[in-house]
Amino acid sequence: MIFKAVGDGKPYPEHGLSSRDWAKIPPRQVRLDQLISTKRELDLGSLLAKDSTFYGDLFPHVVQWKGELYLEDGLHRALRAALQQRLVLHARILDLDVVDLGNP
Asked: Where is this region: Disordered (predicted)?
């Protein structure tokens, strides 16, 4: 098992973070088997491309909501880590359990 579960979409509220906002969150280690993917499908060609993890943030984006960890961005990086038999990866984790988004 790579992930805790494979979801279909984002069950948490929209957070509105920009790439610059994400970059302010320090990365920390997270176990792959604690993550719930928000994407059901992946383009295998993209995964196997040499530059598939070259663009964008160096660290995957994870959203913590209601005690669960959702892999919002960085599926390619997480799967590459799993293929290398790594159990953890470094990710930026936004904790929506403590962030006030102005939602009731």
From this structure: 1-20
Which are the contacts of 26, defined by CB distance < 8 A and separation ≥ 6?
92
Instruction: Specify the DSSP class assigned to residue 2.
Output: -
Rounded to the nearest angstrom, the gap between the alpha carbon of residue 9 and the centroid of all alpha carbons in its chain is 12
Ramachandran assignment for 19, one of left (phi > 0), alpha (psi -120 to 50 degrees), beta (any other) = alpha
E strands present in 1-79: 5-6, 27-31, 35-37, 61-65, 68-73
The confidence score (pLDDT) of residue 88 equals 96
Does pLDDT of 104 surpass 50? no
Phi/psi for 92 (5° steps) reads -90, 125
> Across the chain, what does the average pLDDT equal?
87
> Looking at per-residue confidence, does 40 or 101 come out higher?
40
More confident residue, 102 or 57: 57
